[in-house]
Specification:
The chain has 189 residues and is mostly helical. The protein contains 11 helices and no strands. The chain is elongated and about 85 Å long. It starts with a helix and ends with a helix.
């Protein structure tokens, strides 16, 4: 029995395939088997299994997220975005898809979309310092130091003793002051 059981536990694909015999309509087993195939690089089988999991539980964001990860891996960015957004629409607190969307938009330098996703996340009521810091970084990349300052001040309101945020605010204010002085000198010429 131990030898037989060891063959079942040999690898995730073998384990989930075996377990699926006893629970053929288990969303969790099918989704996990899809993840195992994806990890092995068998994206066609993984996609098929994720779609089956979605059919079994169309209101569960996890398979949509996993399908989006697969699409991102194989370069189908539009399908990845669509599925990440579907996961978020099903569960507005599903942070994994928010993070993946923001990462995808930042890598493609689509700062406006990244900022919008983070702003949407803030609407869930989860005011987090790291979200405001990332928003401040995006605003700086967009060249909007005033907006960056606003995000940093909102972060500071969450943690008034945070020295990193205080220093960042000073740095931003110095940037704004230098920018204003430069504009003033240009007008005087």
């Amino acid at each position: 029995m131990t030898v037989r059981q060891n063959t079942v536990w040999h690898d995730p694909i073998t384990f989930y395939s075996y377990t699926l015999k006893f629970a053929p309509n288990s969303y969790r087993i099918i989704n996990n088997l899809g993840m195992a195939y994806s990890d092995e690089g068998n994206y066609k089988m993984a996609e098929k299994l994720y779609r089956k999991a979605i059919t079994l539980d169309p209101l569960n964001p996890v398979a949509y997220h996993n399908l989006a990860n697969l699409y991102q891996t194989i370069g189908k960015t539009d399908l990845a975005i669509k599925n990440y957004k579907k996961a978020v629409s099903l569960d507005p607190n599903f942070v994994f898809s928010y993070n993946a969307l923001v990462d995808l938009y930042l890598r493609t330098k689509n700062y406006q979309e990244a900022r919008q996703i983070l702003e949407d996340y803030l609407k869930t009521g989860k005011l987090k310092i790291d979200t405001f810091l990332l928003l401040a970084q995006i605003a700086i990349k967009e060249g909007n130091v005033d907006l960056a300052l606003d995000y940093l001040e909102r972060a500071l309101s969450i943690d008034p003793d945070n020295q990193f945020i205080k220093k960042s605010i000073i740095d931003i204010k110095n940037l704004i002051q230098a920018k204003n002085e430069k504009i003033k000198l240009q007008k005087e010429r």
